[in-house]
Amino acid sequence: MSNSTFHLPLNLAPDESSPEWMSKGDNAWQLTAATLVGMQSIPGLVILYGGAVKKKWAVNSAFMALYAFACVLFCWVGWGYRLSFGHTMVPFWGIPNVSLQHDYLFTPAFLGKIPNATMVYFQSVFAAITLILIAGAVLGRMNFYAWMMFVPLWLTFSYTIGAFSVWSPNGFLAKKGIIDYSGGYVIHLSSGVAGFTAAYWVGPRLTRDRERFPPNNIILMLMGAGLLWMGWAGFNGGDPYAVSIDASLAVLNTHICTATSLLTWLMLDLVFFRKSSVIGAVQGMTTGLVCITPAAGVVQGWAAILMGLCSGSIPWFTMMVVHKRSELLQKVDDTMAVLHTHAIAGSLGGVLTGLFAVPKLNNLFFGTYGQYVGLFYGIDMGRVGTGLRQMGIQLLGIFFIVTLNIISTSLICLFIRLFVPLRMSEEDMEIGDEAAHGEEAYAIWGDGDRFEIPKHDVELAVTKIRAGGRAARD
């Protein structure tokens, strides 16, 4: 295109494409961080789920994640972002609106020196991964058409409420001073509780699937887990909305806690089961990532190690001991154990944040000194009341998110059930992917062709094989 025919879009002058209020470095990092988080879902959780289930469920499980990612992004720019971060409509919701107008996208975001266009993208991938984590609880039996309805409904009537309440500057928990650095409450506690609740309403897998559900490809599962771990650098490192020392601390603490948690889980498996379980190591990795999330940039390195020890042991105990002894928990078929890896680990992280949060680091993150004080530092500073208040707010946040997600998820599932079954039929669950989508994950014979012999031809085929064997001997 020649210079004579080129025009800057939207009548922007050349020097207005990077306005003075915007930081190019912060904006570049934010876009990078958002893409890292997006890659945790696509392809991270797509291939983790696809490899972690039985072969007959590989396509369905991966497709649930892929669909959720696309559907959330569409709904997010349509109404979700403004519900979560817009001007207050009611105490827990913003005013819904479309987020695609250039006069909105090119203006400063509610925090940081980045445009709304970047913030909308960044927050969209957080919303998307939350729905994909919920999917982990209902793999192997949820009707895909019910899932197609569940995603936009849950995003609208649950996620946006939690996000506005905890993260929006106008949210009531944000105003009270809750510390949720990067989603321990909004994403992980929400997805864990919602997933477990949805699993209750959907019902269990087939009995034999529930009793024996080996991964069809552990190497593929590990690849997905690796993308999840490395992508967490953007997950936690992007939440200061700036290229800052606080972002650097958040990334380092994330990896320290995760490594400690994985090793702790592995040691417990070795001590009690005499086996070094790969699946167990992935679960320990996940609980470490989740636990550090609400605290990533507001605790010191030694606290990150202690949090890793806790996240590698407490969820291990609830999963391996409490769950197996609890009749109530046994009744709910939580395929990927999101209750333990996300709800319990997220709650644990929120409580430990209330203990270990450093006032000076909170000042770097929130820009306010003295309001956010971990209990241990409150005791040390002679401000016990402030520290206890912080613990109370952290516990209040847990109560609010748990209550919200039990009620909203139950109502959504009951509503969907009026139109389509939540659970696939017994016959379709026997077959799996081919019944749900008409496709299979792996082609064993030729280019997607299956080796099938009609029943009436079996005897003839056996006769020919035996005749060939005799001819070869002769």
TrEMBL record:
Recorded topology in the membrane: Multi-pass membrane protein
Limits of the Ammonium transporter AmtB-like domain: 28-442
Domain of life: Eukaryota
Segments crossing the lipid bilayer: 28-50, 57-79, 120-139, 146-165, 185-203, 215-235, 247-266, 278-296, 302-323, 335-358, 393-420
A Pfam family per the record: Ammonium_transp
Keywords of the record: Ammonia transport, Membrane, Transmembrane, Transmembrane helix, Transport
Key word Membrane present: yes
InterPro entries: Ammonium/urea_transptr (IPR029020), Ammonium_transpt (IPR001905), Ammonium_transpt_CS (IPR018047), NH4_transpt_AmtB-like_dom (IPR024041), RhesusRHD (IPR002229)
Main location: membrane
Compartment annotation: Cell membrane; Membrane
Name this protein carries in UniProt: Ammonium transporter
Family designation: Belongs to the ammonia transporter channel (TC 1.A.11.2) family.
